[in-house]
Each structure stands twice: as C-alpha cells, then as structure tokens.
Amino acid sequence: MFGAVAFAQQTITGTVTDDSGVPLSGATVLIQGTSTAVTTDFDGKFSINASIGDSLEASYVGFSSQSATVDSSIVNFLMSTDQLAEVIVTGYGSQSKRTLTDNIASVTSDDIKGIPTPNAINTLAGKVTGVRVSQTNGKIESGYSFRVRGQSSISAGTQPLIVLDGIPLITNNESSNGSPTNPLISLNAGDIESIDILKDASAASIYGSRGANGVVIITTKSGKKGKNKIDVNLSNGWSTKTNGRDWMNANEYIELFREASINAGYPGYEEVYMESISPSWETTDTNWEDIALVDGHTRDFSVASSGGNDKSTYYMSVAHNDTKGIVFGNEMKKISVRSNLETKTKDFLTLGLNVNLSRADIDRVANDNAFVTPLQAIALSPVSPVYVDGEPYADTQYPNFLLQDKYGSYNTIIRRITGRLYGTAEITSDLSFNSSFSYDLYAQSEDSFNGSLTPFQSTNGDAFASNYTTENFIYSNYLQYDKEIGNDHRISVVVGTELNKSKRRSATVIGEQFPTDDFQTISSAAEIVSGTGGFTRYSFVSYFARTTYSFADKYLLKLGLRRDGSSRFGNDVKFGTFPSVSAGWILSEEDFLSNQPVFSFLKLRASWGEAGNAEIGNFASLGLFGVVSYNQSPGLAFIQADNAKLTWETTTQTDASIQFGLFDDKISGEIGYFVKETNDLLFAEPIPASSGASSLTKNIGSVENTGVEFQLSTTNINSNNFKWTTDVNVSTLENKITDLPDGDVIGNLNILREGEPINAFYLVEYAGVDPDNGDALFYTNKGTEGETSNDWNDAERVIAGNPFPDLMAGLTNSLSYKQFDLSFSFQGEWGASVFNSAGKFQEANGDWFDNQDRSQLRRWQKPGDITDVPRAELIAGNGTEDSTRYLKSTDYIRLKNLTLGYNLPNTITDNVGISNARVYLSGFNLLTFTDYDGYDPESRSDAGGVGQVFYSAPAAKTIAIGVNLSF
Amino acid sequence: MKNFNYVVLSISLLFFLSCEDELNIDPAQSITTETALSSEGTILGILIGAYDEAGQSASYGGRNHLASDLLGNTNQVTWSGTFVDPREFYLKDIRVTNAFVAGLWSNSYEVINQVNLVIDNAELISVENTKSIAIGEAKFLRALSYYDLVRHFGDVPLRLTGISNYGIDLDMARTASATVYNQIATDLTDAYNTLPESNGVYADKYAALALRARVHLQLGNYEEARDDADKVLTESGHSLAPTFAGAFNNFSDGVEDIFAFQVTSQTGSNSLITFYASEANGGRGGDVSLNDEFFDLFSDANDERSTFYYEDDDNKLTSKYTYLYGNIPTLRIGEMHLIRAEANFRLNTEIGLAPLAEVNALRGRSGAAAVTATDLDLDFFFNERQRELSFEGHLIHDVKRFGKTAGSEAPNSTKLVFPIPQAEMDANSLMVQNPGYGI
Questions:
Q1: Which residue on chain B is closest to A526 by alpha carbon?
Q2: Which CATH number fits domain A3-78: 3.30.413.10, 3.40.190.150, 3.40.190.10, 2.60.40.1120?
Q3: Cα end-to-end span (Å), chain B
Q4: What ranges in B195-286 are assigned the alpha helix state H?
Q5: The domain made up of A120-247+285-642+667-759+803-837+882-966 is a member of CATH 2.40.170.20
Q6: Taking the alpha carbons of B426, B432, B436, B439 in that order, is the dihedral positive or negative?
Q7: Window 318-357 of A, Cβ < 8 Å to B
Q8: Which of A782, A841, B417, B427 makes a 20 to 30 Å CA pair with A364?
C-alpha cells in the first residue's frame, strides 16, 4: 500500500528502548546496505532521513540488533538483551560471553529482584550450576555457606572470595555469642546489577592465592545515558517456619515417663519430677515450639535514581529493610545508601566513585547450644506452664527463654563503609591505565545485658560490649592494551599490581554487679571482670597479567598469570605463582556449520589453571605463646606449634565444556566437566594430645572434586503477548580425599579418610531394638555380618554418610502474558545427611524428662514388640549414644521462590506521570518436598560441628506483596 | 600529554617496587616459641601459665573433682540433667569419646609440657634461688598432673622433656604406672627440697609434702604418708579454719589451704560452681543434688558438715561451692589430719597425735560429737573422709583404696578406670586402650 511512493526520502523518527521501556542513549540506527547512521540522544530518540521500504537496524552493546522496515514516519525499537553478547565481569576487566573461554556463571538483577529475603546471598540458591548457597538456619542474620564446586579444603577457608565492584570484601564473622553473623547482611540486593561467579581456575587464577574456592564478583548498578529515572519499591512480607515437628502433648508425655520411671525401678518418680517443674502438671499442656517459633514480618522500602548524559552517569539509592524473624526475639532493621558516579573529566580521563554506607541493627538470640536460645524450649516439658501470673514461669526444668527475652538483651550493629575511587586514563587509543583505591570498613559492635532475673544470673546483672573494626585498603593499578590487527586478530593484554592491607582491631569488656536493672551498660557495672583488646594484620602484594587473543572470532586463547605474596606464610615460601590457560573454538563461525538451521551457536572451550587458598590464621606458620593471667599475674601459655614451611594450598583445575545455541538460540546451554584437585592441604592435623598440643598445621594431603555441570535455557514461547522461558541446571559433585599421608583423622562424628568425602560421617551403626528386652542394638561391624551388640562401646564405627550433597539441581520458569509476569524456581539437593546432635535428648525413648518427639511413642513395651525405638527407661542411656539412629538423609526439592507480577497499563500510569507501575506477589521457601523428619533439610547448627543440627531453627517461609514504580 | 603519561606510569611502578616490605608482619598479641624460650622473664611466665592451665575447668578448675566423685558415687548424690559426659561417670558407663575424659587428658599434658619446658630451660634464670624455686614448682605441677592421670587412666605416657618443635615423631607408648609413681615421688621430693617455706599463692614445700602424703597413702606406704602429713601439720604453719564453712568459698587462701587453685572475678575458673550450685549462685541449677543416703553418713545432727547444704527447687545442694569466684581448695589441712590419723591407726602408732584424739579434734571443729576408740575401724575412716572431704575429688580413689564398691561396681572394675580418649587412640599409634573399652 505504501510501495507506490518508493524512493521518496523523508524524516523518520523513533525511540530505542530496552525491554523494560528505558530509553537507550547512544544506540546506533543504520539504514541497511548504506553507511548512513545516526546515534540516539539522551532520551533514546533518533531522527534519520530514509525512504519507506528501507530497512533500519538498531544496535547497542549488550543487546541483539533489531531491524525494521520503514512503513511510516515513526519507527520504534524495543531491544532485547543478547544472551551471548552479555558482558561478563572477569575481574580487572570484562569480556563478552560469546568469546569467553573461562567458566563464569552469571546472575543478573532480573534473576534476583523481589525475592523476599533480607540476605542477598540467599537469592542465588538454585540459580547457577556448581554453586551451593544456603543460610545456616532461620535466624535472620545467621551465617551462610557458599560453595563453588565443592569443598576443596579441610582446615582452611571454603568460602569464595567476594569482590564487590573491585573490592575484596571483608567477610569476617565477628559475632561474640557463638552464633555466626552474616557479614554481607547489610548488602542491598536491589543495588546489584550482576553477580558473576568465577568457577574454573582459569577465571579465578587472576585472584591468585585467594581464588581456589572460586570468586564471586558483585557489580552494582550504574546510571545509563539517557532519561533520568526514579525507581521506587515497596513491599510487605509475612513469614512463618518452613516446617514444624510433632512433640508429645502432656498426656503422651506423662504416659511415656510413667513407663520410663517404672522400667528404671523408680515407679512414681515421674510425678515427683513433674511436681518440681510445674505447679499445675495435671492440667497444663504447652506446645513450646509454638512459643519459640513465631510469625515474622518483613518490610522493604527502596528508592533509586539513575541517569546520565554524554559525560557523566549516576546511580543513587537508599534501601530500608525491617524484618521480624520467625525465632522469638530476633529482629533486624537495616539501611543502605549507595552512590555510583562516573564522569569524563578530560578527553582522556574518566573518574568514578562508588560509595556505600550501610547499617544493620539486629536484636539477636543465643546460639543453638545455649539453654536460653528460644528453640531449646522444645526440650521443656509440656506439663510446664509458659507464664504464671503474667511472668515467664521460672521453674521449668531448663531455663525458660522468655526470662532471657524479658530481662536480657543482645544487640548487634554492623556498620559498613565501602568505597572506591577509580580512574581510567587513555594513554593512546589502544592503551589505558586504570588505577583505583578502595577502602572497606567493617565495624561490628555488640552489647548485651543480662538482668538480675535472667536465667543463671548470680552477679546482679552482667553486661558485655564488643567492638571489632576491620579495615581493608586495596590499591590496584593495571594497564590495559586492546588492539585489532587487520580484520582477524584481536588482542587484549592486562598487566597490573595490587596491594591489599588489612587491619583488625578488637575490644571487648564484661562488667558485673549492677545496682538495679535500670542500669544496663558497662559504665554502670561495679566490677569489670574481663577486658580484651588487640590488633591483627595481614597483607597481600600481587602482580598479575592476562592476555586474550582471538583469531577471526573463532579461535580464542587466554593466558593468565598471578604472583602473590602474603604475610601469612613462612619467610621461605612467601610468594607463589599461579598460571592459567584457556582456549575456545566457536564452531558455528566455521563454514561447515554455516547455512544449517540447527546450531545458531556452538563453542568448545577448555581451561587449566592453578589458584591458591590462603584462608588460614594470620600467623599460622609460627609457633606461638600468648599471655594468660593467673591470680592477676601475667603468665605465658602455648598457643600453637610452628611450621615455617607452611604455605598456601594449591588447587589445579581442568575444565572443559560445550556451549551451544540451537534454533536461533531458542535453546541454549552448556555441558561441562571439571576436575579440581587441591594439593598441599592446609591442615590442622590432630597429633597425640599427650604431646601437650592437639594439632599441627601442615601442608599435607590432597582432595579432589569432580563434577558434571549442565545448564539449559529454552525459549518455549515467544509471541507478542505470551513469553515463556525455562532454565534448568544440574550439577554433580564427587568430593574425595585422594591423599592423606598420616592416615585417618577422626573427629567427633566425622572422619577424613582416603577415598571418602571430606568429613564423611563416621558412626556406630544402629541396628534397631532387641524384640526380647527392648535394648538398643548396634551392628558390631567386626567382621561378622549382621552381628549386633547392646554395648555401644563394643561396636566399630563405619562410614555412614556425606554431610554435603553430591547432586544439585535448579529449575526456573519465567512466563509473561500481556501485563502479567510469573517466575518460579525450584531447587533440590540429593546425597547429604545430617546428624541430629540433640537426638539423644529429643528422641531418647524417655531417657530424661526432655519432651520427646512423637516417634518415641512407638517404643518397645513388651517382649515380641518389633520397633525401632528402644525400651523407655530413665537415665538408662538405652540407644542414646551417637549412632546412625540420629543420622538422617536430607534430600529435598523446594519451591525456592515464586513471583507473580502485574504491570499496570500505560494508559493508567501515563496519566499520573508514572512510566511503569508493577504490583507483585513474591514468595521464598514456599514449598518443601522431603522425607527428612527434622525441622528443615537446609538448616544446620550454628554452634559447631559438621553436618549437625542442634535445636537449629528452620528457615523462614515468606510471602510478600510489593509495588515497583518508575518515574 | 606524553610526559604526563610517563609520570603516571613511573609513579605506579615505583610504588610496587617498594611495597613488599608490607609482607613482614609480626603478631601483636603473641610471641614466637623461640622468643618464649629465650629469657628468664618468659620462662617464669610459662611457669605461671602452667598454673593457669592446670586450674582450667578441664582439670583442677573442677571437672577432675566432679568426675572422681560421680564415678565413686553409689547413691549419696543424684545427677540430674542431660549433660551426657558427667552422667556417664555417674552411671559408670563411660564412652571412649567422653569429652571430660579427653579434656582432662589433654589439659594435663599441656601442663606437663609447659612445666617440662620450664625445667629444660631453667638455666636461663640467672638467680640461683629463683631458678631452684621455679624448678620446684614445675616439678610439683608435673607430679600433681601425673598423679591424677595415673590414678584415672593407669599406665600413661611419661614425658619428662618439653616439646617445642612439633616436627618430630610424637607417638609414645604407655609407661608402667609403677614407674610413673616413682617419678611422682621423685619430683615431689625434689620440690620439697627446693621450695621455700611459703611462696604466696604458688606451691611451697608443704604443698609438695602434702601431695606426697596423699600419694603415699594411696600406695599403702603408711609410714611415709603419716610422716609427711605430720610434717605438714607441725611445720607448715597451716591449721584448721575455725569453722568448717571457713575452709570453702574463699576469695583468697585461708589458713587451712596448703595449696589452692586461684580464682578471681577476672582469672581462673571454678566449674564446681557450674555443676553443684544453684542458678542464683552462678551454677546450672544444681546438677548434683544430695540424697538421704548422703545425710545417713552422719550420726550426729549437730555435725555442721551434715547441715552444710541449702535448698534450691526442692533439691539439697552442697554449700561447699557457692561463691562463683572462690578458690578451689586442692590440698587442705583437714585432709592431712585424716591421713595422719588413718596411717597412725593402720600402723598402730601415735606420731603427732593419737588417731582417736586427731579424729575427734577434726570432728570437734564441726561440732560433731566425739567418737570412742571402739568406733575406730577402717570403715569409720572411709566414712569420716566422706563426711569431711565429699565433693573434693576423693571418693573414687577412696572407694578403690578401701576396697568398697561404687554402685554395683567392684573396686577393681574396669568401669572405674577411664578409657584412653578416642582422639589419643586415633592419633597415637603406640597407644593401647584400657580393658573394658571395646577390647
């Protein structure tokens, strides 16, 4: 219909925006087949002289090019992100995913937005292959476990290095109450643009002696040229425990302990006992779990403003979160302010400043192994009342945590300043010099007060105050050279140095004897009973180089080298060198794969490299004596044995994968395999205690992690109104000790043994109950198959399980229909077991008056009974020893998060000056499918032990509703 | 512009040539082993450190006492609560992984190694008198530690040289207990000979002698036990506290204390409080409560020792441990009287004082009626020791010495001997487990 007026040129105008409607400034619009091109302005607008029927192509870095035929005087482009052109942050630079030869997993802000958890790290769970993230337990601030491709160390650190905008973050746990705090809790997830996880050694080796556990690079948002915008997010969430347990009610309790007393030869003792713990035992029936685990609430509010012009961009945000946890008395308020500014001050010089101020104020409860932690209330008898005359009842068998809550307090404040000033000078068009100075200040203070009515109080109150301040200074410089030679050769070289100094200062004080409970700070203590104060420091000096080369965009090669020195190691071994190499071949660029409909992209890549692990004590190589005091006289005491040869662990990793895109990238994915071998393990080897020391840190032994990683993304439906994409990831992990020169090392419940996973459970095997007399039986495992004994000491321990999973998977579906969007992620783990260290109290067939799990009702009662719960008998210890009786498999699948959103139509929003408005419903830990009968398959004790639970709170299940507004 | 670039480059390069000095960092709160073994001040410091070590909860800070008394118990006390490690002593069913057993073992050897280092490096101490006192104290602490090890475990590795470099073969077999006892006697004799008459809160010559009296009594060397106790009673200047209560819960050593581990609000630890005291007194609420059978030991209602308790939540708790920061009496005059009296009685001698007079003098302090000669027999001494010394860590050893039973266990039962800790079994290839523990 327009064909008739061909060749008549006219002014065509339009806007180039990204898929969320944000204008793209600086995008190129080209008339195909000509050299006529224009660039979009700040508002993403362009104007070009073209004819009807011409084909226009819009392109912008990081987005797929779009073309459109001119059919009217207005042509708008809606750009979508190019999966393969996606920019991956590699540390000291970035690279496009297409030409990347390393294994780096990437998560963007879209993947994690709106997930209702105050812990930004949590949002990664189930999203990427080979990465396992879990929060220790249901306390808001509780620590997290972050593993990249398994545990590659026994005694040194196992968590990846976390780098935020080029700053290796301080990740100390500075908690003083035995329950670890999450040092990243104050991080605002809304500020995160992307999280790139350097998994293979080729990627991580650029971080040298600190890269062996992988490196997590968090990049925060920056402003984009174009329209200035303001984003507001408001959400309100409600939480409950993911799961509860079945405890005996008062009648069942009385019945069981009546029987246990008779069997123990003290008939009627249960009544004597119950009299002592309850004024009303015949009429009271308390469910203590309901008292300890409560409904939580979370409220989020954030505002971000961003934008920029040709010379400068800015991003500024403030975020506030207020969370009431599901554990009684656990609350947090945090606030974070960020400013990311960048400006071109001279033609050759760009300067930038990132600053983040954050503060988290947390009311906390005791660690899992403390009587006064709320969840230990499940040990209390259902016949004891919670309150008597409005006061927490004080004569419970173990302390009533409500007394601690009412008359005591434990407050932690984390204050953090993270900042980086950087500059890039273009020396020539190919060569630039990058310099940055970063500073990270992590200050954690804790204040506690136990008033005169708190449990165990004997000193008219006591107060504790601590202050830990850690500062990191990072001074980093590198030269970057990028050159295209001819059409086919592209070379990029980075050479640099980095100095990282860290200093930690600590001070604690304890005071006792307060005049009244009105006075609660140290200044009011009549007696100061303890004070500490000290410093510790470490430093790294590093040199690094990296070269990437590509030929014809098909053949890719990368070489890396880092040399690190650390103050932590002995003089003779202060420096280590970490080389790496990786290569890739983009087959789909080859002629033999052109003009075929199947493979839109196909790449083979492989890498090899070494990285180190220096996460041991600052002075681990030295034999040390420290000061002790005896009757206020100073003395010296042995601290640790020396080993001047102590150096870092070295992890050598080989990795290969195929990356593919099928049918125009409708299906894309990667299949990879890795072998990660760690040698010279930094290992606190147990030595005979009869030598006066119980361990010696050595570099011995090897561990191997191997795994297959599979990732698949499909675009199932992509029509104008309906879009549906699916992401699947599956990773296997085999963790194995390959060399342990001095033989087995046996811990409390775990063993280190060649050929077995690190810290495999090593336990006596429970054999059930003798039908004749109700005695617990254990397999002797002394060579006679099936032989049992009722004497636990008589049974040999066996390898009984792995504390970590060997198979992990995630499944995310994202759908959008017209104004609606829906995404949900399942996550699953298989192969791990957990030991309930409190089983001997909770599932102890009435061994003592702790309330029992209802499973104990099926105890043996008379000869001939076939059951797995032994005869009830007070203080008989019948089967309560550490055995596989308390070891449970934690295989699970969990609906980790779900978000349902609705974008208000522009016809409504435009009228009120809002460019975009979205309301959403979002959930976290919504559903769990598992046979595990404890609280939560993800929850672990925060009071020590590997793979153990001990009155550990389940995770929170949260449902939130929220609204996003963009102006 | 070019020049400016070069300036930028050179400054950055220069910076990196100089910063490797940043790698030399010394710890601020500790010194190296080499420094610690290099001067008079540090060696004397290690000796004081050994007192602190020995006074920790794991051994003389309380758990040693508690384990001995729970293991020796028949029905005098009830252990309540689910704290499994002490309960295993109470039930005479000790696991090889018992944390209290492992703690006593490792803590004792930490003390032993530290005092061995003091003895090995004593030549650094310039003043002769200071040196001999330091060696004497070191030997006292070594003897004390070995004595409790050998009593609880039987044969134990006997290490007499300090280890400062752990890059050596650390496996060591058990030494016959007779040899260990000989070493204890030798050390105590040396200590007695070199230590001064009084030495502040640290061990003096009478501490060594009092401990030797206890060791001799255990070994049945009654003459030596009697004579050592007699010497302590007549020469040390210590005497019974005017009241029974005065012997306990002392902020500083009382007249009756020959040797006590020091506890203050800032240093030391008293974990007897933890297990014996009410929450109001700083304990867990009285894990150990006194039964009627305990009170049945007393025949005289006026005996203050029988009323030396308080009630908490219907439980009777001993009043011996009610002050959170009280010192822990380790060797006191009351025990010396009982040693001398029992030895005199067994030998039919009257060195120092006739047994009857001595026993009645001790009873008299607590307002207990005098007994008569016909009351005196070995059972009387077994019971009188309980009346006087309960909860002070003597019971299991007395049970064995007097050939009594603990619960249903005969005095020679393998269940009344600690197992070698599993960790030691696992790490020390020359170690052999005690009978009754899985072998």
A1: B265
A2: 2.60.40.1120
A3: 84
A4: 205-219, 222-235, 271-276
A5: yes
A6: positive
A7: 348
A8: A841
Q: Using a CB-CB distance cutoff of 8 angstroms, which residues of chain B are in contact with residue A574?
A: 23
- Contact present, A566 and A187 (Cβ < 8 Å): no
Residue A773 has pLDDT above 80, yes or no: yes
Residue A657 has pLDDT above 80, yes or no: yes
For residue B292, the domain's CATH number is 1.25.40.390
* Helix ranges restricted to H, B238-306: 271-276, 292-295
Asked if the structure places residue B26 within a domain, the reply is: no
pTM of the model: 0.85
CA distance B316 to chain A (A): 13
Q: Where in chain A is the domain with CATH 2.60.40.1120?
A: 3-78
CB contact under 8 A, A690 and B105: yes
Q: How far is it, in rounded angstroms, from Cα A90 to Cα A105?
A: 11
Q: What is the pLDDT of residue A619?
A: 86
- Here the ipTM equals 0.91
Contacts of A582 (CB under 8 A, 6+ apart): A101, A102, A200, A202, A557, A558, A605, A606, A607, A608, A609
Taking a C-beta distance cutoff of 8 angstroms, is the pair A326, A296 a contact? yes
List the structure tokens of A278: 């309850």
Domain-located, residue B414 = yes
**What is the C-alpha end-to-end distance of chain A, expressed in Å?**
39
Give the type of residue at B85.
D
Question: Taking the alpha carbons of A177, A178, A179, A180 in that order, is the dihedral positive or negative?
Answer: positive
> Tokens at residue B300, please?
């005289």
Chain A CB contacts of B119 below 8 Å: none
B10 in any annotated domain: no
Residue B16 in tokens: 């990196």
Contacts with A, B 177-236, CB within 8 Å: 201
B16 in a domain, yes or no? no
Closest CA to B286 of B329, B250, B323, B316: B316
Burial A879-901 (b: 16+ CB within 10 A, else e): bbbbbbbbbbebbbbbbbbbbbb
Element (H, E) at A926: strand A916-930
Task: Please tell me the total number of residues recorded for chain B in this structure.
Answer: 439
pLDDT band at A62 (very low <50, low <70, confident <90, very high): low
Torsion sign across C-alpha atoms A191, A196, A197, A201:
negative
Domain range enclosing B42: 36-427
Instruction: Tell me the one-letter amino acid at A22.
Output: V
Report CA Rg, chain A. 31
The token pair at A774 is 């109700």
* Of B234, B256, B237, the residue nearest B245 (C-alpha): B256
Domain with CATH 2.40.170.20 in chain A: 120-247+285-642+667-759+803-837+882-966
CB B162 within 8 A of CB B33: no
Query: Considering only CA atoms, which of A534, A500, A531, A467 is closest in space to residue A174?
Result: A467
Which positions in chain A touch B281 (Cβ < 8 Å)? 458
With a cut of 70, say whether residue A684 has pLDDT above it: yes
SS3 assignment, position A758: coil
CA B377 to chain centre: 29
The contacts of residue A784 (CB under 8 Å, 6+ apart) are none
| Overall domain count for chain B | 1
- Could you report the per-residue pLDDT of B60-101, keeping only the tens digit for each? 999 999 999 999 999 999 998 768 899 999 999 999 989 999
Grouping H, G, I as helix, E, B as strand and the rest as coil, residue B329 is strand
pLDDT digits (tens, 9 = 90+) for A481-503: 999 898 889 999 999 999 999 99
